[in-house]
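subagent[fold] <- orchestrator: predict structure for attached chain, return tokens only, no commentary.
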Amino acid sequence: MPRFPFALPILFAALMVVDTRAVEPADLFLEQIAPIFERRCIRCHNDTDRKGGLSLQSEQSMRAGSDGGEIVNAHNSAAGLLIGAISGDAPKMPKESHPLTADQVAEVLEWVKGGAKWPAGARLEDNLRANRNWWSLKPLIRPPVPPLLKKNLHQARTLVDHFVIARLQERDMSLSHEADRRTLLRRLSFDLLGLPPTPEQVAAFIADDSPQAYEQLVDRLLASPHYGERWARHWLDVVKYADTCGYDKDKLRPNAWPYRDYVIRSFNEDKPYERFVQEQIAGDVLFPGEPDGILGLGFIAAGPWDFIGHAELPETKIDGRIARHIDRDEMVSNTLNTFNSVTIQCCRCHNHKFDPLTQEHYYSLQAVFAAVDRADRPYNVPPEAEQKVYELQSQLGQHKAELAKLNETVKKEGGKEFAAITKRVAELKPKTNPTAKHPAHGYHSQVVKDATSEKWVQVDLGHEVEVDKVILHACHDDYAGIGAGFGFPVRFRVEAFGGNADLAAAEKAVTLDDQTGRDFPNPALGPYEIKTSGLNVRFIRVTATKLPERQHDFIFALAEIEVFDNTGKNIAIQCNVTAADSIEAPVRWARSNLADGIWPHATDPAALKELAVVQATHRQILARINTPERAAVREQIEEKIAVTTTQILDLTAGRMVYAAATHFQSNSEFKPTMGKPRTIRLLDRGNILTPGDVMRPGTIPIPDKVQPWFELNPDHGEGDRRAALARWLTRHDHPLTWRSIVNRVWLYHFGEGIVATPNDFGRMGKLPSHPELLDWLATEFRDSGQSFKELHRLLVTSAVYRQTSEYHEKHAVIDASNRYLWRMTRRRLEAEEIRDATLAVSGQLADKMGGPGYYLFVLEKNVHSPHYEYHKFDPEDPTSHRRSIYRFIVRSQPDPFMTTLDCADSSQSTPNRNETLTSLQALSLMNNKFILAMSREFGERLQRERPRLPQQIERGMQLVTGRSLTERERQQLEGYARTHGLTSCCRVLLNLSEFCYLD
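subagent[fold] -> orchestrator:
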């Protein structure tokens, strides 16, 4: 008796559907068996990881058998372990996965019965079928339009329909009938604009009896500026766009939005796709002098970025190198995922397990981006002006180097005594760390990039008082290792004002102490005392005219101001404190901390005394070696720095975009490459500590006629590398680029792509449901001007798109998932569509396009990272009533309301939104502050537009659904509104399924 008798009936049934045409043994293996083994078996059964003692990577290893014995037996197929393991009522393999289909089991059985032959020397790790015949890598050839049966011919409106109907014919199915006009208008309006139609538009379209009414409607919608806003959202989901960097600090990107606006404008202008792609990879090289050539480079910089790994760690340190390596990985993966639907990121650590991609291919692509970083760069300026900015930035660096050299010379001329004192000061400072006892550090200004920015803080004593002395206490903070003396001004003055003084009039101020003529040595934690000689004053102001460096930026901080009267009492305690600005990050930093009686004290009194003596000597030597001549030179250099900085700001003001960059202003750790590519090596297992061969720039191989590889001399410039990649991506014969983009457009119209895995056209992705249609669309789009609007027009005028979404029991039995499109797929509105539609029907949607994103949170800046407080935001703020695409998107703290409605995660490519159904969604749509506010606005709109309650509710239903009330709905809603009010009734309308769903 066979070992697995229960498997035989299934095998015999499967054999009945196998193609009986003669197939050569080698071809049978390559075309049918190898894909099954590679996708379902060798993950566990390979030469490295022999689960059950079995490897299926080669013929030799397969015939060696497993722990259980012989794997295949050509004379008795049921005797081999392979057939028994994959078949039967409860197949054992693939483990923890779906069983093989009956067709696949039959193919394996046929192969075993034919001798289980392999091509000579074949190994599955070579991805034989993928290299030779994988569908997405085949040459892109325009297929013929399939003929239709006479009975179905009348259903076709466009050539797209022929392909879909032909597949339905094969399964004895057909298209559903056309949807009604209201449904079609609502479907079109949301798909093309992301907004609901108005009741007036619905009525006009239903009444239009022109034979071209539908086509004219499509043209009007495509001409709307809202079209670009809708379709840019899809693109930004794929490329991971956001307005913050992500990672732990999640710093703001105030200049990311020009790229978002560029995408919107590109769709509205119907920019050819080839140009659109090239601008985003190498626009500055291929289209010099054109703003879009710079703006498009926001694509390369759109994804997450490790601020700490770049701005706070040099490239010479391991963590700094890792951060830059991961950054290039983001650029490479985003490019190949977006434009080619290829999962190249697998090759960062190893050759791809399923696709014909190797580490060599991956690191050659890293070499393309070897000189690229992310930074703000000017865009709306001619090339010569951009070059001027680079020159000025270089000059600024030289001036700063001159200043550093002068400071070093001054130190050297101070001699050994000065060096010893400087060292002693450094030794004493770390011993005074009081932060554990004093969490309230003091006052802290806003952070700025210019040391010469003027900051001030003052104490109001409440009334005029005779003051004997003022004492300033410096802060202590371990940020960047500064410790004692954190934020104490380099140059400053202390002034007093009388009770009736005009604080804006400098001539009315009495200067108590002036340290603006030279750099003041940091006092660490020693008190700085100023005698006032019994002046009557009310206000004490400290003005910093030169700020200390924090780390790559500048601030002003003080722990405490003590003001003593003639009795020796500190009269500043709990007095009101004002300032030019403040970070206000309690409890550590707040204006009020300046007069709370708490400041850091040295833990060692002896050290404090020594520090005071050493610093006094330090100041004396500085005064001696800082000659008037040197002071004049210093002043000249500082003036040059100020002038150069102003010139840069004048050239770039309001015209900066966060994008790929090689030239930008550096800080101490994050330095630009100035276009010189870094050396890229192949990393063993992706480990930065195990570098291998140096890699030349290149890309992935494509079989047949497409140029499989470009390899540039390492001496080629950075721009040449990106330009070569951009041209390669947009080659006329590139099979992946053109298939990928039309599949994405199809997905957003029909709910699922022809390939259901839009970012993965490899063997781990899904097979196309209509491969001929995909290729026909790709060639049609490529060869007809690459117009997105024409592609939309082709798809939405088809009978496939215009059919109803009604259920058909017979068809559902054959194709429950509607993969072959026998009806239109229903879908819930996306988060942005729900929010925008809510604003629209309530009459609050603002039409303003473009510009910086608005906040749906209260931003609280912090020394270490910003805080995004969504619960503090007022949803009735009219500045936030714009399209959702213009909102400021935070990676680490996404908007809770939008996230609940399955908004895209901006930290990963999201070609297709999830569509979940949760109780949180129902609660949010009933109780979120935004919904409550818009319900009130909706009710007030209805009261303005209609005089009586029945008319108001009828108008509300028309705005929300595009139709009139039924008699039952009228009675229910009127009764509810009379009991609970019109606002509550509007909440009900905004929660209707008809409002939140299409079809």
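orchestrator: received. Logging for downstream: The longest strand covers residues 455-473. Residues 550 and 687 are 33 Å apart (CA to CA).
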